C-alpha cells in the first residue's frame, strides 16, 4: 500500500528506501555499473584536472615546440614523457583532454539546466491552465520540432554572435553556446511535463488541495511537480549526452568554442587536420573519450528510464 505524502500526493515509492527497485536494478546491471564508473572517472578527472595534468596545455609559456608531434608513450626532445603524445604545438594530449572535458561537461550541465528552467515551467503552466496559453506553447514547440536541433542551435548561435561586439565574441563564446543548445532543447521537457500534468491534475490529491484553498502555483510546485521528477530526470540524463555531442559538433564545425577555451570538439577539430599526415593520436584519443562519455550517459539514461518505469517492475 502506498501512503500519501504530507503534501497529499502519493509518495514516490521507488525512492523511499535502500531496497528500492532502482537500487536493485543497478546492482543487477553490469553495463550500467560500468557506465557509472566511467562517468565518475570522467567527473573526477575533469574536476582535478589542474592537479592531474602535467601542464596547462593552453598556456603558451609552458609549451615546448621541440616536442611537437611526439608519438604516444615516448619522450620528447625536451625529455618530457607524453603518454598520449603531443600535438603540433607541443601540447600534452592527455592534459588537453582533461581540460577539454571540463569545458564539455560545463557546457552540458549548463545547457541542460537552461532547458529545464525553460521547459518545465512552460509545461507545468500549459498543462494545468490549458486554453490559449497551452495552444500557444505547443504550437511554438511543434514549429521548433520541425527543425533539427543542431540547425536551431546554429541559428541561435549565429544570431547571438552577430549581436555581440567583435572584441567580446571569444569571451562570451561559452555563454552563447550554452544559450544556443539550451534554447534548442527545452521542447522535450515542455511536452513531457505538459502531458503528465494533464493526467495528474484530475487526480484526487489535486482536488483535495484545491478544496483546502491551495493556489495554482502551490499545487503545481508542491503537489504535481514532485510526481513528475522521474520522467524529467530521464530526459535530463539523455539531453546531457546530446548537449555534449551538440557542443562538440559545433566546435568541430568551427562555430563553437575558440581554441583558447578548449573542449573535446575543439581538440577533435584540431586533430582532424593532422589525421592524414600520420599524427593520428591528436584526433583519436579525444574522439575516444567523447565516444565513451556519450555512450556512458546514454546507457545510464536508458537504464534509468527502465528502472523508473513501474510497468517494468
Automatic annotation (TrEMBL):
Major subcellular location class: membrane
An annotated GO cellular component: plasma membrane
Membrane disposition: Multi-pass membrane protein
GO biological process: transmembrane transport
Domain ABC transmembrane type-1: 101-301
Keywords, comma-separated and alphabetical: Cell membrane, Membrane, Transmembrane, Transmembrane helix, Transport
InterPro entries listed in its UniProt record: BP-dependent_transpt_permease, MetI-like, MetI-like_sf, OppC_N
Domain of life: Bacteria
Protein name listed in UniProt: Peptide/nickel transport system permease protein
Organism listed in the record: Variovorax boronicumulans
Lineage: Bacteria, Pseudomonadati, Pseudomonadota, Betaproteobacteria, Burkholderiales
Amino acid at each position: 500500500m502506498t501512503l500519501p505524502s504530507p503534501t497529499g500526493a502519493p509518495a514516490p515509492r521507488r525512492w523511499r528506501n535502500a531496497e528500492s527497485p532502482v537500487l536493485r536494478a543497478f546492482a543487477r546491471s553490469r553495463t550500467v555499473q560500468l557506465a557509472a564508473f566511467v562517468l565518475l572517472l570522467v567527473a573526477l578527472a575533469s574536476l582535478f584536472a589542474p592537479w592531474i595534468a602535467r601542464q596547462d596545455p593552453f598556456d603558451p609559456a609552458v609549451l615546448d615546440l621541440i616536442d611537437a608531434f611526439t608519438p604516444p608513450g615516448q619522450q620528447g626532445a625536451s625529455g618530457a614523457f607524453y603518454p598520449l603524445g603531443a600535438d603540433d604545438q607541443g601540447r600534452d594530449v592527455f592534459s588537453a583532454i582533461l581540460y577539454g572535458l571540463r569545458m564539455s561537461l560545463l557546457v552540458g550541465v549548463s545547457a541542460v539546466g537552461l532547458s529545464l528552467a525553460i521547459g518545465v515551467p512552460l509545461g507545468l503552466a500549459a498543462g494545468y491552465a490549458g486554453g490559449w496559453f497551452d495552444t500557444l506553447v505547443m504550437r511554438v514547440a511543434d514549429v521548433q520540432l520541425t527543425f533539427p536541433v543542431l540547425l536551431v542551435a546554429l541559428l541561435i548561435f549565429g544570431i547571438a554572435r552577430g549581436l555581440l561586439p567583435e572584441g567580446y565574441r571569444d569571451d562570451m563564446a561559452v555563454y552563447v553556446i550554452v544559450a544556443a543548445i539550451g534554447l534548442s532543447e527545452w521542447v522535450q521537457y515542455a511536452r513531457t511535463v505538459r502531458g503528465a500534468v494533464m493526467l495528474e491534475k484530475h487526480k484526487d490529491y489535486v482536488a483535495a488541495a484545491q478544496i483546502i484553498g491551495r493556489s495554482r502555483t502551490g499545487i503545481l510546485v508542491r503537489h504535481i511537480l514532485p510526481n513528475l521528477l522521474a520522467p524529467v530526470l530521464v530526459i535530463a540524463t539523455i539531453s546531457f549526452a546530446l548537449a555534449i555531442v551538440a557542443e562538440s559538433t559545433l566546435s568541430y564545425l568551427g562555430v563553437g568554442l575558440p581554441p583558447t577555451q578548449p573542449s573535446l570538439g575543439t581538440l577533435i577539430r584540431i586533430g582532424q587536420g593532422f589525421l592524414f599526415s600520420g599524427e593520428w593520436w591528436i584526433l583519436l584519443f579525444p574522439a575516444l573519450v567523447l565516444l565513451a562519455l556519450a555512450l556512458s550517459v546514454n546507457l545510464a539514461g536508458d537504464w534509468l528510464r527502465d528502472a523508473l518505469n513501474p510497468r517494468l517492475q
